Amino acid sequence: ITSDLDFMEATASIEEIKKFHLKVGDVLLTKDSEEWNDIAIPAYVAFEDPDMICGYHLAQVRPQKKAIQGKYLFWFLSADCVNHQFSIEASGVTRYGLSNYALSNSLCLIPPEKEQEAIAIFLDKKTAQLDEQVTRAQKSIELLKEYRTSLISDVVTGKIDVRGYAA
């Protein structure tokens, strides 16, 4: 959750704002969805605003400072093998939901604080590198598509002579 996202306006009472206010380090999980594989998708809160609160389709987890770091918890919950425990706990037919019981009774590995920090830093760095490579690949694909379109146009309009290529 960063400041560059589009946020939805909603109404909330003073009590709801106090209870569901998001803080840097919180982790959010989708707790209901139309799709089974969209259950328990985590998001890390990296931005804080006094008017920003957790929506009702999300579970808000506020890590205990001495026990677990928010960024580590985010990465832990992002692992397919960990996320799967929530997916199988989800119930529903047309809309899947995750109960508070399933959330509060889930298992979580908690290494020492320095290890948590090292894991989070490593994954932040490596996933940023992968995201950059994906962006470059997508740009290359777009350029190749443009080249393909241009080539087809040039051949069809006669700008490129293809008479010697006939099979």
Question: Would you write up a description of this structure?
Answer:
- With 167 residues, the chain is mostly helical.
- The protein is built from 5 helices and 5 strands, in the order αββββααβαα.
- The strands form 2 sheets. Strands 3-1-4 form a 3-stranded antiparallel beta sheet, covered by helices on one side.
- The chain is elongated, with a radius of gyration of 23 Å.
Number of helices: 5
Mean pLDDT: 88
**Shape by Cα distribution:** elongated
What is the ordering of alpha helices and beta strands? HEEEEHHEHH
Helix percent band:
40-55%
Question: For the terminal residues, how far apart are their CA atoms?
Answer: 57 Å
Rg is: 23 Å
What's the story with the biggest beta sheet? 3 strands, antiparallel
Enumerate the spans where pLDDT stays under 50 for 5 or more consecutive residues.
Answer: none
Strand order of the largest sheet: 3-1-4
User: Which structural class do you get from the secondary structure elements?
Assistant: mainly alpha
Strand residue percentage: 5-15%
Instruction: Tally the beta strands.
Output: 5
